[in-house]
Amino acid sequence: MNKTALRKKYLQLRSEFSIEEIDDKSIQIANIALKLPIWQFNNYHIFLSITEKGEINTEYILHILQGKDKNIAVPKTDVKTNSLSHFLLTDNTKIETNNWGIPEPKDGIPFPENKIEVVFIPLLAYDKLGNRVGYGKGFYDRFLASCKKDSIKIGLSLFAPESSVIAVSETDIPLDYCITPEEVYCF
Prior knowledge:
Strand content: 15-25%
Helix content: 10-25%
CATH architecture: 3-Layer(aba) Sandwich
Largest sheet: 7 strands, mixed
CATH class: Alpha Beta
Distance between the termini: 21 Å
Strand order of the largest sheet: 3-2-1-6-9-10-11
Number of helices: 4
CATH superfamily: NagB/RpiA/CoA transferase-like
């Protein structure tokens, strides 16, 4: 199945969950995340969920990070360049929803990509090798290419991996882990 078909398939599958079901699965994902060997780091990046697209509710992982007193960077999109900038999430950070339904910081303290040690990544699908399919604009591939080479890349998904290998391009960057409500996949 090509990436376009996978996007359509998983957007449809996610739309079949109620907000309550996604919330329950998001709590399970956060609890499973606690078992990963990633909590010794200081600088984390996490996306803010697009509820209308059935994304995992990342507020539970955010609470864990805040409780562990970690530095948390959140992205802001630039749709003209298909790039992300990152801002430190603080008590004073104002979050607004942009024209595409993405919650993001209005402004704040810039956070350098090369300081990020762990990245929680949104995705639609992934395979057993850690190849992932996002929304198709390459925001995260460009961002991950700018991170430290040893940054830990963690996908969050409601589903198990695709059984067939997803076709990749040379700019695609694979995951190290993917957390589902049932288990962690290591790549």
